[in-house]
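Hi! If you just cloned this repository, the fastest way to understand the data is to look at a raw example. We've pasted two of them here, unedited. The first protein comes first, obviously.
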Amino acid sequence: MSALEFEKPIFELESKIKELQVFSASKKIALEPELKKLTQKLDKMKLDIYNNLTPWQRIQIARHPERPFTLDYIRMFTSDFVELHGDRQFADDMAIVAGFAQINGAKVMLMGHQKGRDTKENVLRNFGCAHPEGYRKAMRLMKLAEKFALPIVVLIDTPGAYPGVGAEERGQAQAIAENLRDMVELKTPIVATIIGEGGSGGALGIGIADRVCILQHAYYSVISPEGCASILWRNAIKAPLAAEALKITAENLREFGVVDQIVREPLGGAHHDPVKTAADLKDVVLKHIKELSLLSREELVKERYSKFRKIGAFLETPA
């Protein structure tokens, strides 16, 4: 597993412990007291580091190349997944995967951004940055879910919508805007979770949901820290400072009412125990689907509209 810069002391100590274990076994020398002390030191180091992460360090975890992606979660907590393709206008966007699935027997329409593990797959998936046809595909299938009264489960993980010339020529802004408008009016439960990066309109384009959850080390922001730093300080190196100022961590977002629930991750991040993360996320998604299923179609739309109208509200007081 690759180590982030702030994780290097942990990996170095883990390597030292493994070397001692191998030496102890090969030479048949009892080193249990020394190994116990080092293991205790390692446990304390992990707690000290992971319980005191800066916003920038948490963003690095959200971008970790070994972090579970949408297809990983589909494999781990769904069954009978049938992927559906195309927007019926231009093409199929591989940056967004979507289809019918079952979660513990509950039938859903599941969709989300998909990144790649290597260069070839990242080119195929466009690094998780969707084109207009991706958002139109998502809306086509959301309306199909509404027709069959299926809950919609969304997994968000994108740096942002693709800003290329072709995407703009095919109506990127319009596709996202239409999704925002139409998702508010969908008469079926929608549960969305930010599982990694939640970048700007690229995330919001499939993120208008009755319940918006976020994994503990994921982030959700109108702009990336690097982009913000380039605008405000004319220097992308200031990204850690921008990450602090943007207030984009899970706790900040919960405090502001942007997300409804934080899903805890294993110590060090979801990539340290993907199976547990998937199990916890599945439980959260099913809980919200069950709660939302008790509401009428009209109540769903009314509460969803009210939820997003409240975000960003503030009061002015006379000077």
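Ok, and the second one:
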Amino acid sequence: MAKGKNHLLNLTLALLCAFVFASCKDTNSYTVHGNLKGIETPELYIVTRQDSAFQIDTVLSKAGKFKYKSKSEILQPVVIYMEKGNIWVTVWAKNGENIILTGDITYPELVLAKGGEVNDLLSGFKTANSALIKKKSDPTLKIHVMDFVQSHPASVASLVLIQDFLSDMENAADTQSALSLITGEAKENELYAKLQAWVVKVRQTEVGSPAPDFNMISTKNDTVRLESFKNKYVLLTFAASWLPLCETDYDKWLSIRKNFPEKELGMLTVSLDENRADWEKLAKEKGFTWTQVIDSAGWSSSMVSLYNVSELPCNYLIDKDKKIIGSKIPIDSVPTALMKLKAEI
């Protein structure tokens, strides 16, 4: 009989503890607990959005461990920047959730977040496809993303995978196919609208699309538009003097200019140098004689958005009818493409 009473007492205490724990759970905030390997710089920067403004908080990690607490009534991304902003991971959080972050920041794309439906689904996908994710461009990964989206069409996790593993490949058709499967709450999430807008932007600079027109002022104070290159092919290049990657293209530009005269090929280089003098000096030293435009807005340039420029150098080849025939084309491929066009005339 005593044994039965003890069992009943233990059960009562267990239920009481569960009730106390549930009642103490904070439903007015969320918490992110981090336990990450590879963190050398203790300062972490957490970017969230409060109302319509972004908020940046600083937290300190100790031996890779940290804690962050905030509030959000709706599900939103929480971006954690590490190593002076060079590495970041994203978790999804809303009030009432307790999220645990684990992994090695050597592979930030494989850091796992547990807690909340979206984080759990994403962590499951990462765990199952870790080898493919490390390869980054393996086409099999794209198939697995599509399978996931078909199985979870109403989850924001599907949108995250589309963003991370389809739109990074700059393939608007694949992204659009995946987005067409999205339903329910995920379709109401702002990430869905963002990805749809990305598809539109990419498609406006795909091969076969009319080249977006522009209106800029050259270094010679001339107004430059697509109409400025009437009855000519156009090589539109984006570059910056401060980027070493662009240096390998300079001699190739000069070679193209030498082999394809102005009457056949118009050349326009858009520099993203914020300091105009830097590009002007470079262009003079290298002997760039074709049309130059310096957009001191840098990455905020309207041309960057218009032509969906995501990296430098970036090249577009445009035909005489002002249609794009080479989208983000490697500079080494330009002479071959132009010779083929001449042969077809």
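That's it. A detail worth noticing about the second one: Residues 26-113 form a domain with the Immunoglobulin-like fold (CATH 2.60.40.1120).
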